[in-house]
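Incident log, structure service

09:12 report received: a user says their structure output differs between two submissions of the same chain.
09:20 pulled the input from the user's history:
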Amino acid sequence: MRQKLRIFLSRHPHIWTTLYLPLYLGCFMYLEGKEARPYHVIHFPLDQMIPFCEYFIIPYFLWFLYVAVVFVWLFFKDRKNYYKYIVFLYTGMTVFLIASALYPNGHLLRPTEFDRDNIFIRMVCFLYQADTSTNILPSIHVFNSIAAHLAVVHTPGLAKNKWTVRGSRFLAVTIILSTVFLKQHSCIDVFTGILLGMFMNDLVYRSGMLVKAHDFIGKLIGKDRNLSPTFSGKIHGAAEDAEI
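09:34 re-ran on a clean worker, output below:
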């Protein structure tokens, strides 16, 4: 078992990047546990014009699988684009945590009466119990869906299959729509999630910011452009695809 573990770690040294996930989940659960604290109500007039539709619970729950599958595929198949994906994801998730801590927010849009004989309604009720309507700005469902789709589009091994790209686009769009049709989010949460996604797209895929940041940190610790041999090679390789 130890030998297999050593082999796995030698082949996948970037596994250290997954350490952020339990940290994020811990912070998220802590903030969720403080739901009784006063919060700012997020509301937009368009919210009341969008009807509740329980069928959107399917793409909403598929979000977990969607983001995870892209994560795992890149982890094992394309390390360079995996680094881009996690920088995209982790930055947005961190912004979400900071925003939730500094600006407690939520909304009052959820319906209160349901026909519980409907399986989709029961799924929605489960969602409402598991995930409160607080800490919603920006929408992490929206942001991570954008991150996953852009990772698919910018990864040659995935982008070469047009049905993979089309399926990813359809799933990303329906997940984004599900956040408002399930009354889980306000349109403001969606707009801010999209804006944050646009910013990260420019940062990760259209600039040399990652390369410059890596080099700067490397110089600070005296290892000029060699902060980590593996990470350095992958990050600098990414510059070939960036518009610098």
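09:41 both user submissions now match this output. Likely a transient worker issue. Closing.
09:42 reviewer note: The first helix runs from residue 2 to 11. The longest strand covers residues 40-41.
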